[in-house]
Amino acid sequence: MNRLKRFFLILPLLIFGLTGCSENTTDPGSQVITDDQALQELALEDSSVLSFEQNFNDDGAMGFFFGKTQEAIYPLKIGRRISSVTRQFSRELIGDSAYVTVTSTYTGVMIIAASFEPVTPGDTTVTADTVIQKPFTSEVVRKLIFRKVNNNPNPRNNWRLVAVSLPSGGTVTNNVSINKAVLTYANGDSLVITNPNDFFLSRNPSGARRDIPVLNRNATVTLRVEIYSTYADDDFVILTHGANLRGFFRVKKRLELISSEPSGAGFVRVYSHTFASGSAPGHFHAIIDAMPRGVVFDSGAAVENKSWGVPYIVR
Q1: Which parts of the chain are beta strand (E)?
Q2: Tell me: the pLDDT tens digits for 10-51?
């Protein structure tokens, strides 16, 4: 009888102990994220995505080496400050490949610091007489290709990013559009882009797709951009580049107008600028922004712009 009593006293402890062991040894793979969640996380962690946003979000107005103008105001600094980002993901599975489209909607303000007096090129002593903030919403699309390489319980270990398209987008208006961008390197090689979302750069040097550009430190690159504009006034085209993944070393330059020819209801214009890759190694992004002149020079004009991006690596 005493043995039976002892058994029933010990039985709950045995059950508790067995249950505790079961909970502590649960395979983490049974509680991991789904394939879709894994693809979303991997897409946002890619260096080309991170480097784009460090150059797209200036977090304030910054100088862009702007010369003297004949306008009523004289912009000294211009920049974007992003207040929120929302993303939509879509994916298509074909065999062992996942084709992911990421649509990022950026909401924020364009900040323009300007003087009411003419500005001599290179004069850094002039202070702003006014700071204008213009709200905007810009949508940027990027495509990524993943290949399934494993059947691990954790989906993050199953997918490898093999190619990423160039990002492109802008505001909903189409009065200004980018037709083509050509980057020419010091050795004479060039990269010609006409449709960023169909232009894929390989994440694997041995792959069949074109590789992400790799530049030596302080290498020179000449950028030529062709745009179409419905405005008679010359447009405002800017290159932003050089910001590392921490947001340092960002440079903003205005492109020089090379030619302008009437075409249909508007004009085809070519702009150019030569820039240096920088002295710091790492992952970077060059972002082209094309906008009507009034966005910068008219305090009442709404923000219109189109943006293309090109990731690159400095070694």
Answers
A1: 62-63, 74-94, 97-115, 130-148, 159-165, 168-170, 176-185, 190-193, 200-202, 210-211, 214-215, 220-229, 236-241, 251-254, 256-263, 266-276, 282-291, 306-314
A2: 444 443 343 444 334 334 444 568 999 999 999 999 888 888
Of 201, 217, 229, 210, residue with least CA distance to 309: 201
The C-alpha angle 78, 84, 88, rounded to 5 degrees, equals 120
Distance CA 112, CA 134 (A): 8
Tokens of 228: 């179409």
- Is the model's pLDDT at 209 over the cut of 90? no
Give domain limits for the chain: 31-314
pLDDT digits (tens, 9 = 90+) for 87-140: 999 999 999 999 999 999 999 999 998 887 777 766 677 788 888 999 999 999
**d(C-alpha 194, C-alpha 182), whole Å:** 9
Tokens of 135: 């709200």
